[in-house]
Design a protein that fits this description.
The complex is a heterotrimer of chains A (221), B (282) and C (627). Chain A is mainly α. Chain A has 7 helices and no strands. Chain A is elongated and about 60 Å long. Chain B is α+β, with helices and mostly antiparallel strands and 282 residues long. In chain B, strands 3-2-1-5-8 form a 5-stranded mixed beta sheet. In chain B, helix 1 packs antiparallel against helix 2. The longest helix of chain B has 32 residues. The mean pLDDT of chain B is 94. With 627 residues, chain C is an all-alpha fold. The two termini of chain C are 40 Å apart. In chain C, helix 10 runs antiparallel to helix 14 and helix 17 packs antiparallel against helix 18. In chain C, the strands form 2 sheets. Chain C has a two-stranded antiparallel ribbon with strand order 1-2. Classes of the chains: A mainly alpha (221), B alpha+beta (282), C mainly alpha (627). Chains in contact: A-B, A-C, B-C. The interface between B and C is large, with 103 and 124 residues.
């Protein structure tokens, strides 16, 4: 049995020596993204793919939690939707619009406007989180606590989990702002556009998830 | 090397099949109406399984036996990337066999689980708790007395919290073993006080979880008088392995006389019956 | 090389020991780290199974050595039931999460996916490093769960985290099985031994593991979609890459569900919520809400935990075995010296298994109290998953047919995989039927079934992969002589361990019993139980030969060339072991499909993926699989 291995080894060594094979002959032409000799240029697609993949995971988690909520609502004790959550919904939808303005400014290469719209979006994001906390207070005053039947726990749990994800979005916005302030003298780079695009994607998705959770809590209570 | 492996695969296949065919260890004899159909479905399935298993292993062994590297560089393998026709054939054949098995397998399930218990079924409430079974009989009025977890009092042996003030509870009995009539549908109402347990009598070919917070109704018909072991088949904690009780399948007249007895005499009579019947031999 | 754009050397080769071997960004080092983690974890899990077998076959026997190591778990050398059950729990958790999920995907996938698609590293090296270290922390926490549960004084350290963190139950570890069914796992110490602080850490460990796996999955998917080298079209990828990709997709979509469920379970335990706990419970003499040790719970549903768990848990089975299938296909073709039979069918089968895997979780729950109508649907879907599994088996046999097999140790394990996959998988036809599950549920036939197919077959896939790729990873062969000894004993051993378990299950032996002495109907099975234990002891002993072989071969093994197996894919195109950026600055170009063996007219019996047609005199330049 060992002898067969030996013969295999001997036969095999020839091919390794041939490395790098065809590539050695045409060193410039083997990149996947371009033939300019840099072989692996910056790929905006990588960022886009990754963000969609991240969102797939986030959506799966919210889908699972939503299913638990739907199965846990028994309908005996109704929980009134806090008024502040209506305001939250308006704020986050508006912030999606301001972020799309920011992206538009970036496409038009209006750096100043881009930064301004980002700042507005950031402010709206923080306003959203504050409105959620005020909403919690409303719930508490109405006698709906985190510890209790699952139905009332979910009002807090959904907002908390979503809030943590939105906080991630806020960090991404801050990251964009830092990046743009560092790049302020340079022309717009492909990389910056790619980052702006994926952050916008994430932010819109967080808005959409909030609307879903809001409707879920509003309709099934 | 290849031939040794081929032979070992064949021998292991043969011994595995022998283990199943010899039936030295097998199901305990069945005592429920649905069991023959279930056993028949099992036999059909195990035939399909056994034939597929043996065919695949024999084929694997044969390929290993036959196709070896000779060390001669000009003697090469067949150059082929496959055959769409073969792929189609074996996909369709396995799909037909497997789906047919799945569909056939539904009949026992449908009879037991997609129907309610027939009218006039003998009713028992089963309340499981960590490492103990409680069986609640409605008595002659055929109505279960009210129970409430707040009334549970282990010291007074009121394990399931029967409300003594409820008139329906007056003739109820609770015992630690199950007594059911032979040849008559039985409906069990399964509940649990603490964690998930599982009602299981191997001879019945029957299992069902008892889930806290739920009352699960199931039904079956036992058709052989005797005493059988009842086990818990869902991990419920430290002493899961001895959460044991007995199921007595009794002639109708014994059940009727048992049913009429008040709690204390009911207990005594159950003890006598448990001593009277013996377990099947295995 | 111009470095103005992101070139190959995005991170230069590190020089310090810590950056090179500990906090490395190199996917190859991270892969080896994962494999070492799995080898450590499997040792722990294996010792636990040995202890369980001792208890099952010789209950009541005094093992003084046990008392030395586990004074609370085996007082007087007698194993307590709670010790046994905590072994069950930890064996399952460690094996499923830290062995079967780490080695196939995080280990071999990390090392070889970038090389096989012609990339210089993973798409996000930092994320990759974090993925490993998060998983590592998860492993430490699961070991810690044992310590905390077994030692009440250590529990005091975490008093600040809340009352449920104070004190374990004094048993050896948490009790709940790897499935941790609520409400047993949700109630806390009131539910008995093994439900103390250790259970919190068990849940936390799994949540941490989920995060680590998600980071890994993210990286795998992006890398595969975005970083394939020129000419590496999807249908020219080795089947290993397809398997790792599908596994990553499964992990991506299933781990978030477990993470969500785990957080809810933890909240039930530490915050007093009632997601999985219904009202009116009466546990250990206490009514819910009547005592500070047992707060008021209301309105939750225990079955929801099972839905969440198995929605993850079933895909997890495929996460464990798909990489093994990929490695087996790859290794079979290489040593059969023949192209994979039905490459396209294999790819479709992998995808079909992955997809169907999301719609069959209910077959774990036929008798759980869920709707009996959904059981019908789950049953039929479950049996249809057998179709792509059978297609894979047929294609493996087709690959061997007319081949010229070289019996290396890697090939033996790959052939063993096929045999065991059939042996273990086929009893799924029994267990997938709701009717038969009335008799089979939670008996040893289930134990035998999943150990053979997801445990042992997956491990055989990994053994095959290790013997196959070891020369590439370490520049030395993994000893073939000891390897073959390892194979023979293990192959026969696992049949002897797990085949009798099927019979025990048919005869009605329940899982998770710490002894079978209480029931008359189980007494006749005792000879089988002893037989299984003896087989297990021999098989486990043999694994130490394997451990020795690995350590010895890393330092003293026979030196290997760049392509010792005469294989075709890109990892054999680079140096052994591969340089820091895998291809020494020049990415290869791919000209053909991955398994061009025995091409008529070619000078050798294999043509590598990176060999241009002009380099293959007489080769007919097959560009893929147009057959």
């Amino acid at each position: 049995m060992v002898t067969s291995t030996k013969s295999v080894t001997k036969k095999g060594t020839g091919s390794g020596a041939k490395f790098p094979g065809p590539n050695g002959k045409k060193p410039g032409g083997n990149g996947w993204h371009g033939d300019d000799g840099s072989r692996r240029k910056f790929s905006p697609a990588r960022y886009r793919i990754t963000m969609w993949v991240v969102l797939a995971a986030v959506i799966m988690m919210f889908a699972a939690l939503s299913s638990v909520y739907i199965m846990s609502v028994h309908g005996e004790q109704r929980v009134a939707m806090p008024h502040m959550f209506f305001a939250s919904t308006g704020i986050i939808l508006f912030s999606s619009w301001t972020l799309s303005r920011a992206k538009r400014s970036l496409q038009l290469e209006q750096s100043r406007r881009y930064v301004n719209w980002l700042l507005v979006t950031l402010a709206l994001g923080l306003a959203f989180l504050s409105s959620q906390l005020i909403g919690w207070k409303e719930l508490k005053d109405a006698g709906v606590y985190f510890v209790g039947q699952p139905h009332s726990s979910f009002f807090y749990f959904f907002t908390a989990v979503h809030g943590v994800h939105l906080l991630g979005g806020i960090f991404l916005l801050v990251f964009l702002l830092i990046k743009s302030s560092m790049n302020i003298l340079k022309p717009e780079t492909e990389k910056r556009n790619a980052w702006a695009a994926v952050v916008a994607l994430y932010w819109h998705a967080m808005g959409a998830i909030w609307v879903w959770l809001f409707l879920l809590l509003l309709v099934l209570k | 090397m290849g031939r040794v492996l081929a032979v070992i695969i064949w021998v292991l296949t043969f011994l595995s099949v022998l283990l199943f065919v010899s039936k030295k260890w097998w199901f305990p004899a069945a005592i429920s109406e649905h069991a023959p159909a279930l056993d028949r479905q099992f036999t059909i399935t195990i035939l399909v399984v056994g034939i597929s298993f043996s065919a695949a292993q024999i084929g694997l062994g044969w390929a290993i036996w036959k196709f070896r590297d000779t060390g001669n560089p000009s003697d090469r393998a067949v150059y082929s990337h496959g055959s769409n026709r073969l792929e189609m054939i074996w996909t369709v054949i396995t799909a037909v066999i497997f789906i047919a098995l799945a569909v056939m397998g539904q009949s026992v399930w449908a009879n037991l689980r997609l129907n309610d218990a027939p009218a006039g079924s003998y009713q028992v409430e089963v309340v499981a708790q960590q490492f103990q079974w409680n069986f609640h009989y409605p008595g002659n009025d055929n109505v279960f007395g009210r129970t409430d977890p707040k009334l549970i009092d282990d010291g007074a042996l009121n394990f399931i919290g029967i409300d003594e003030t409820d008139p329906n509870a007056k003739d109820d009995s609770v015992t630690a073993a199950l007594a059911i009539p032979v040849n008559r549908p039985v409906e069990l109402r399964l509940r649990s006080k603490d964690v998930i347990h599982n009602f299981w009598v191997p001879q019945l070919r029957f299992k069902q979880d008892l889930v806290p917070g739920m009352e699960i109704k199931v039904h079956f018909t036992a058709n052989k008088v005797g005493k059988y072991e009842l086990a818990c088949a869902e991990l419920c904690g430290q002493l899961h392995f001895k959460m044991k009780s007995y199921m007595l399948v009794l002639p109708e007249d014994e059940i009727q006389s048992l049913k009429a007895l008040p709690q204390e005499q009911f207990q005594t009579r159950m003890t006598e019956l448990l001593a009277k019947y013996s377990l099947p031999t295995y | 090389m111009s470095e103005t754009h992101e070139g190959v050397h995005r991170h230069p080769a590190p020089t310090g020991f810590i950056r090179k071997y500990i906090f490395s960004l190199d996917h190859k080092v991270i892969g080896i780290q994962y494999i070492i983690l799995a080898l450590a974890a499997v040792l722990v899990g294996m010792i636990m199974s040995l202890l369980m077998r001792l208890q099952l076959s010789w209950p009541g026997t005094n093992w003084p050595i046990l008392e030395t190591f586990f004074p609370t778990g085996a007082p007087g050398g007698l194993m307590t039931p709670e010790f046994y059950l905590s072994l069950v729990t930890m064996h399952g958790t460690i094996m499923v999460f830290f062995v079967l999920t780490t080695a196939p995907q995080g280990g071999f996938g990390n090392y070889f996916l970038p090389i096989q698609i012609g990339a210089e590293d993973m798409a996000f090296p930092v994320l990759n490093m974090m993925s490993f270290w998060v998983t590592f922390v998860g492993f430490i926490v699961i070991l810690f769960a044992i310590v905390v549960e077994g030692n009440q004084s250590i529990g005091q350290w975490f008093a600040a985290l809340g009352p449920s963190f104070v004190g374990g139950s004094g048993t050896v570890g948490p009790i709940g099985g790897w499935t941790g069914y609520a409400p047993l796992s949700a109630l806390g110490k009131v539910a008995g031994p093994g439900q103390g602080a250790g259970m919190n850490f068990w849940v936390i460990s799994i949540a941490i593991f989920c995060v680590g796996s998600l980071l890994g999955a993210l990286n795998f998917i992006t890398t595969l979609l975005n970083m394939r080298t020129k000419g590496m079209s999807l249908m020219r990828m080795p089947l290993t890459c397809w398997a790792w990709f599908t596994t990553a997709v499964l992990a991506l979509l299933s781990f978030p569900v477990l993470l969500g469920g785990g957080i809810l379970l933890l909240l039930d335990r530490v915050a007093g919520t009632s997601f999985f706990i219904p009202g009116g419970l009466y546990v250990s003499g206490l009514l819910s809400g009547s005592n500070p040790n047992f707060p008021l719970h209301t309105g939750g549903s225990p079955i929801l935990w099972q839905h969440l768990f198995w929605f993850f848990g079933h895909p997890e089975v495929y996460i464990a075995i798909l990489p093994g299938m990929g490695a087996t296909s790859h290794i079979l073709a290489t040593f059969a010296r023949k192209p994979v039979f039905g490459y396209r069918a294999m790819v479709f089968a992998i995808f079909a298994i992955g997809l169907l895997g999301f719609f069959v979780w209910g077959h774990h729950m036929f008798i759980s109290g869920m709707s009996p109508y959904s059981a019908v649907a789950f049953s039929i879907l479950t049996l249809s998953i057998g179709v792509p599994s059978a297609v894979k088996t047929f294609n493996w046999l087709g690959t061997l047919w007319g081949s010229r097999i070289r019996f290396t140790t890697a090939m033996l394990f790959a052939l063993g995989f096929v045999s065991l996959f059939v042996a273990g998988g086929i009893s799924g036809l029994i267990l997938g039927q709701s009717s038969l599950d009335l008799a089979m549920h939670d008996t040893y036939i289930v134990t035998g079934h999943f150990h053979l197919v997801m445990g042992v077959a997956s491990i055989f896939g990994m053994f095959a992969a290790l013997y196959f790729w070891f020369p590439k990873m370490f520049g030395r062969f993994l000893g073939e002589g000891l390897g073959k000894f390892h194979f023979w004993i293990t192959f026969i051993g696992v049949y002897c361990i797990f085949m009798p378990m099927h019979i025990m299950g048919i005869a009605g032996m329940p899982r998770r019993y710490s002894q079978f002495t209480e029931y008359e109907f189980l007494k006749g099975l005792h000879p089988l139980v002893v037989f299984v234990s003896v087989a297990a002891i021999i098989t486990i002993a043999t694994q130490f030969v394997f451990y020795f072989n690995v350590i010895w071969s890393v330092f003293k093994g026979k030196k290997a060339g760049d392509n010792p197996w005469e294989a075709t894919t890109l990892e054999w195109n680079t140096a052994t072991p591969p340089p820091h950026d895998n291809f020494a600055g020049i990415l290869p170009t791919v000209y053909r499909g991955p398994y061009e063996f025995a091409v008529p007219g070619a000078p050798r019996d294999f043509i590598m993926q990176a060999e241009a047609d002009s380099e293959v005199p007489g080769g007919n330049g097959h560009n893929g699989h147009k057959h």
